[in-house]
Amino acid sequence: MLKFEARQNRAAQLHTTTSLAEGGSVTMDIDGHPHLLIDGAYKEGGGQVLRNTFSLSALLGRPIKAFNIRANRNRPGLMAQHLTGIRLVAEMFDGWLDGAELWSREVAFRPGRFVADRKQFTGDTGTAGSATLLIQISLPCLVFAPRETPPQVDYCAMVFKPIVQRMGVEFDVDIERRGFFPLGGGVVHVRTKPVQDTLRPITMCERGKVKTIRIRSFVAGTIPKHVAERMNATARKMITDYLRKADEDQRVSVEEEIVEETDKAAVGNGTGLIITATTTTGCIFGGSALGERGKAAEKVAEEAAASILKDLQEGGCTDEYLQDQLIIFMALAKGTSKIKTGPLSLHTETSIFFTQLLTGATFKVTKADDAVNAYYIQCEGIGFVNPHFQTTPPVVATAPAPTSASVPSSAHPANEEEEEEAME
């Protein structure tokens, strides 16, 4: 396996005097190349701005310069998690980076061609980090690569994967070893298949009835199995109580999995659970939580159950996390996508803004009349064509062999605020 060791670049000596009231759209000349300026303090103002803009910059071949990076966080600038992600994208596209250093608040990126002869890309944060967030920045790049690419990971596999498969995004997730904060040490392998042409649009506007509940609770290290059993029991009671009161179909199937991770399958002590709910129309919701010192097993289960129940009660067709992760794929797809969600999170609002800015896709958000707290997000996608599979390919090389990407794992859910609190 080829270890990812990106070249260190000199600190950015780029000073921006332009005031950007709307987060971006002004260009700046750097070494004779116009770079779109990205204000990292806009809206959500965290690492998600980097994940969206660097992915799209690489795919579209559009240079960018991000400034005010993570300005809305207690410790602004690039943390190891974000630095690894942008270096990973730069390595995939043989890109030029300036300012890509720990705690840097300004980074310029100019993508090149996808490195078609590489068989594997590896991102290692060197600290405890979330595999899900590294997958978020790299997956859009990998599915438009010229060939198969081997990119809290349970959520990614159980909720995100089956939904984006409907759009033509194909990938497999293999958790080799779980890692827990603060030691880290986990490894996840993600193998993708290239999109042959364009992504399909997606429509999810009818929630349907809940038909299957899946509860997976686990313990690792020296934590006794009864902790997982207690988490499972609490979660099951909360979910079944809700289904009974909400007049859902009483023939709901409840699948329970209680796991003791082996020493080989996990590093250190850890506990947690993930709950998924699948409906009769194919919607999938997820809620997860991790244990920590001093937190009772029942409290962990309550957090995970409360998360998924909140999303179910709002009447949408996605949970809070899936809502913002679909935005970039809706923009790249060919045709009109429309999803029904709960209230838009700040992550989603930020994602919509920067995705529109870089792609030219148009989004429209309207209130749903048939639900108390639900909205429709509609997008006219740009129909981005995989350049490696066009009849007359552009200046990008093609190659048939498989490639892979490996990222360090964490059982942490896809919530950057929680992740950053832990890391700080």
UniProtKB/TrEMBL annotation:
| EC top class named in words | ligase
- Could you list this entry's UniProt keywords, alphabetically sorted: Ligase, Nucleotide-binding
An annotated GO cellular component of this protein is: nucleus
Keyword Nucleotide-binding belongs to the record: yes
Q: Which reaction does it catalyse?
A: a 3'-end 3'-phospho-ribonucleotide-RNA + ATP = a 3'-end 2',3'-cyclophospho-ribonucleotide-RNA + AMP + diphosphate
As recorded in UniProt, its EC number(s) are 6.5.1.4
Question: Spans of biased composition, class Low complexity?
Answer: 398-413
* Coiled coil regions in record: none
Query: Could you tell me which Pfam families the record lists for this protein?
Result: RTC (PF01137), RTC_insert (PF05189)
Q: Which SUPFAM superfamilies match?
A: EPT/RTPC-like, RNA 3'-terminal phosphate cyclase, RPTC, insert domain
**Similarity annotation:** Belongs to the RNA 3'-terminal cyclase family. Type 1 subfamily.
Q: What does this protein do?
A: Catalyzes the conversion of 3'-phosphate to a 2',3'-cyclic phosphodiester at the end of RNA. The mechanism of action of the enzyme occurs in 3 steps: (A) adenylation of the enzyme by ATP; (B) transfer of adenylate to an RNA-N3'P to produce RNA-N3'PP5'A; (C) and attack of the adjacent 2'-hydroxyl on the 3'-phosphorus in the diester linkage to produce the cyclic end product. Likely functions in some aspects of cellular RNA processing. Function plays an important role in regulating axon regeneration by inhibiting central nervous system (CNS) axon regeneration following optic nerve injury.
Instruction: Quote the protein name from its UniProt record.
Output: RNA 3'-terminal phosphate cyclase
Q: Which organism is it from?
A: Acanthamoeba castellanii (strain ATCC 30010 / Neff)
